[in-house]
């Protein structure tokens, strides 16, 4: 009898316990473009997304006549696994109030995405925090590095604070299902092209917004044959010492042209009307990190340093030997820039 009971006991099926494993990250990258030409910052966001170690899906929105051009270009970049696109006349200009419902549709319910990423552009800085708030999630801005822990499904970011004088380390725990962040373009290399990439392309229906609370009136762009300030390898910037708009142009533009450089300006120069607002470098302007940054007549206010101190080689010319710019400059010259710059141009032309 005992033998029979023992046999019956071992005849029962063995039970196995399964353990949940963290899912691989899946990033949604908002790829911005202007008239079908991808923004350089979006390519840096693509590189940041690839560093998470999971799948990367791009999202392109816009007017019907521009989206297809952007899609054809985007699908050739390394790191992209899939590409979503949506077209609508309402998407011709990326207004946050108009695009938010589309993002909500993609991210609500059983969304596969664990991260939403974009560059730190004016448009994205308005859009992503808005979407995050609608989904009751936090957003991290201006990220300069990231690390994803697949075991705990948490992501750790670093970002500059106090005008770049301190670095904050921020950890998004696994309790946050979708992690929103924007990346500083100068902190990540642009994604390289990979023509052998096999990218799945899918169209998604737009979410039309009736009676949008905001309306795009016009876009005014400063046209120039010089390199774009945000991605230029060389930048020549001027400050308040340039006296006026005409002197600013007569002094800086010839030097920029001989160097093949972009032109920048301090906030003081922009506020004084010497240069267009699109040329402002600093905490409230563009953040640049070129191979060469020349600061002419710029004292070095902390707000300006926040936008250029990561440059590889900083050259400063100022007649004030106590100017703060000399504290971070690799090469400094105490002299009258109106005498030095013309001589420098002549030497470079030789």
TrEMBL record:
GO terms for cellular component: mitochondrial matrix. Its cofactor is FAD. It comes from the Eukaryota. FAD binds at residues 240, 266-267, 280-284, 297-304, 318. GO terms for biological process: fatty acid beta-oxidation using acyl-CoA dehydrogenase. InterPro entries: DHS-like_NAD/FAD-binding_dom, ETF_a/b_N, ETF_a/FixB, ETF_alpha_N, ETF_asu_C, ETF_asu_C_CS, Rossmann-like_a/b/a_fold. Binds 1 FAD per dimer. Gene3D superfamilies: HUPs, TPP-binding domain. GO terms for molecular function: electron transfer activity; flavin adenine dinucleotide binding. The keyword Mitochondrion applies. Signal peptide: none annotated. It is found in: Mitochondrion matrix. Residues 27-216 form the Electron transfer flavoprotein alpha/beta-subunit N-terminal domain. SMART domains: ETF. Pfam families: ETF, ETF_alpha. Keywords: Electron transport, FAD, Flavoprotein, Mitochondrion, Transit peptide, Transport. The keyword Mitochondrion applies. PANTHER family: ELECTRON TRANSFER FLAVOPROTEIN ALPHA, ELECTRON TRANSFER FLAVOPROTEIN SUBUNIT ALPHA, MITOCHONDRIAL. The electron transfer flavoprotein serves as a specific electron acceptor for several dehydrogenases, including five acyl-CoA dehydrogenases, glutaryl-CoA and sarcosine dehydrogenase. It transfers the electrons to the main mitochondrial respiratory chain via ETF-ubiquinone oxidoreductase (ETF dehydrogenase). Heterodimer of an alpha and a beta subunit. Belongs to the ETF alpha-subunit/FixB family. This is Probable electron transfer flavoprotein subunit alpha. It comes from Amanita thiersii Skay4041.
């Amino acid at each position: 009898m005992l033998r029979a009971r023992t046999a019956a006991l071992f005849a029962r099926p063995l039970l196995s316990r399964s353990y949940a494993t963290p899912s691989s990250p899946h990033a949604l990258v908002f790829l911005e473009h202007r008239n079908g030409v991808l923004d350089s910052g979006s390519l840096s966001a693509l590189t940041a997304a690839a560093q998470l170690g999971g799948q990367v899906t791009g999202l392109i929105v816009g007017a019907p006549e521009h989206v297809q051009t952007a899609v054809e270009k985007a699908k050739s970049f390394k790191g992209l696994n899939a590409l979503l696109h949506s077209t609508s006349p309402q998407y011709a200009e990326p207004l946050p109030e108009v695009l938010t419902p589309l993002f909500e549709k993609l991210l609500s319910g059983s969304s596969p995405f664990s991260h939403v990423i974009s560059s730190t552009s004016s448009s994205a800085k308005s859009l992503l925090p808005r979407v995050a708030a609608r989904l009751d999630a936090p957003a991290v801005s201006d990220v300069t590095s990231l690390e994803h822990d697949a075991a705990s499904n948490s992501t750790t970011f670093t970002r500059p604070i106090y005008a770049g004088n301190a670095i904050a380390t921020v950890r998004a725990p696994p309790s946050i299902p979708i992690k929103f962040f924007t990346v500083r373009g100068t902190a990540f290399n642009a994604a390289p092209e990979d023509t052998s990439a096999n990218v799945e392309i899918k169209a998604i229906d737009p979410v039309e917004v009736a009676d949008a609370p905001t309306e795009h009136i016009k876009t005014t762009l400063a046209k120039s044959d010089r390199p774009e300030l945000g991605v230029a390898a060389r930048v020549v910037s001027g400050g308040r010492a340039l006296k006026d708009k005409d002197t600013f142009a007569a002094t800086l533009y010839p030097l920029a042209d001989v160097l093949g450089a972009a032109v920048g300006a301090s906030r003081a120069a922009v506020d004084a009307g010497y240069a267009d607002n699109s040329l402002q470098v600093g905490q409230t302007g563009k953040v640049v990190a070129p191979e060469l940054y020349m600061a002419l007549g710029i004292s070095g206010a902390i707000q300006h340093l926040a936008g250029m101190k990561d440059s590889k080689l900083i050259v400063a010319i100022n007649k004030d030997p106590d100017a703060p710019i000399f504290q971070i400059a690799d090469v400094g010259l105490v002299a009258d820039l109106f005498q030095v710059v013309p001589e420098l141009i002549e030497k470079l032309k030789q």
